[in-house]
Task: inverse folding
């Protein structure tokens, strides 16, 4: 597909049409934290399964103590104890009560629980509950209570069938814990996509190798910082298996790499997207069987970015300057990664208020690196532009990028769209 620079939104439509999450797999809740639910996940049972006590105390029939007062206390005989682990319970009959510990099921016949500090114990030391449950004891009750007092109804914490996680949402540790408690054994989730990042350029060295930082020679290559940044951004987006490498300016080696039949779902190259005789990323992709989705973008920086696909692999060809890699990742690759993970698309774009004036030259969209901070309930963006923020320093301080129209003059307090991996 050959055409001129297209808008970011048009490019995203093409990308998201081509991106498909992996087929769901069934995992236990303990193994699905951080993955994306492929269907709505609902509670498998009530919690609690039966009405239970929320206090250490005594399970009673509210009708038995309806006439209780300080002058005329009601005396109830304690027949047994119910603990959180107790199974089938003996019923509470008229004139009796059962001692019940927090989390213990309310016995049949009882409909309320009296806190142990609200009763007077007969036949035991009043400073502590009776510990010998084989010896009958009685309690005195001086105030009536209504049915349901200190009782959590069945399903009072979560009801069978309540939605725990919606399809397209990332499963949090707390959601997984609720799944375990509601007796869910397996969850349909999308596996994480894998990625490979390749820095193109004979002037580059692999930063993972010992000699990468050897700058003693005037002809020494410099470390491929784009590998660190791109792989780190992918990891921040939830990917785990990310391969990296450096490839010199050799078209045949690039074609061989891209022709591999077992490429991951995401391949990112940096460099080689210009128009010189050494910029062969596009040609190499086409020779390896990739079909172009767009050949250039109407954004700055990143105009020379391209994207292509083959089977289940998306290829992103990014320019070499790190600031352009950072901006293009947030503008184009981030939404595609979300789709590949199975995440639902945001209903509204993330916005922030500028705290500094900024203007742009005519043409397309401009992506200005920015730092972000919360001020009360509002997010504030500080553009990192101008002589006080040279490109490498701006990238080190950046949390994302603000999207600006061409030929715009924005004032402090104006609202702008923000692209970031933080939220």
Result:
């Amino acid at each position: 597909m050959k055409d001129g620079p297209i808008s970011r939104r048009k490019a995203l439509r093409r990308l998201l049409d081509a991106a498909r999450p992996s087929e769901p797999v069934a995992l236990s809740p303990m193994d699905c934290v951080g993955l994306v639910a492929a269907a709505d996940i609902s509670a498998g049972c009530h919690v609690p399964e039966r009405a239970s006590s929320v206090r250490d105390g005594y399970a009673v029939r509210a009708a038995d103590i309806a006439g209780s007062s300080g002058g005329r206390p009601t005396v109830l005989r304690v027949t047994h104890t119910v603990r959180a682990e107790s199974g089938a319970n003996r019923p509470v009959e008229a004139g009796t009560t059962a001692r019940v510990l927090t989390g213990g099921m309310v016995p049949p016949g009882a409909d309320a629980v009296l806190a142990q500090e609200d009763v007077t114990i007969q036949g035991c030391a009043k400073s502590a509950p009776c510990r010998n449950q084989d010896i009958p004891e009685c309690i005195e009750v001086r105030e009536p209570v209504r049915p349901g007092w200190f009782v959590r109804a069945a399903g009072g914490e979560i009801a069978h069938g309540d939605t725990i996680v919606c399809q397209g949402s990332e499963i949090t540790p707390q959601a997984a814990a609720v799944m375990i408690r509601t007796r869910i054994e397996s969850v349909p989730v999308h596996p994480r996509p894998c990625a490979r990042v390749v820095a193109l350029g004979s002037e580059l060295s692999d930063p993972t190798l010992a000699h990468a930082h050897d700058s003693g020679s005037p002809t020494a290559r410099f470390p491929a910082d784009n590998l660190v940044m791109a792989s780190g951004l992918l990891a921040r987006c939830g990917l785990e298996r990310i391969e990296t490498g450096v490839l010199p300016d050799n078209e045949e080696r690039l074609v061989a790499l891209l022709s591999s039949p077992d490429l991951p779902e995401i391949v990112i190259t940096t460099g080689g997207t210009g128009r010189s005789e050494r910029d062969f990323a596009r040609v190499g992709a086409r020779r390896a069987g990739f079909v172009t989705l767009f050949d250039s973008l109407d954004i700055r920086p990143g105009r020379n970015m391209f994207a292509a696909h083959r089977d289940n692999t998306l290829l992103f060809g990014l320019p070499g300057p790190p600031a352009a890699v950072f901006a293009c990742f947030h503008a184009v690759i981030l939404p595609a990664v979300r789709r590949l993970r199975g995440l639902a698309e945001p209903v509204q774009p993330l916005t922030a208020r500028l705290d500094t004036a900024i203007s742009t030259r005519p043409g397309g969209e401009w992506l200005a690196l920015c730092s972000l901070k919360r001020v009360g309930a509002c997010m504030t963006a500080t553009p990192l532009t101008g002589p006080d923020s040279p490109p490498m320093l701006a990238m080190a301080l950046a949390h994302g990028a603000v999207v600006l129209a061409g030929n715009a003059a924005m004032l402090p307090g104006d609202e702008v769209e923000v692209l970031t991996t933080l939220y």
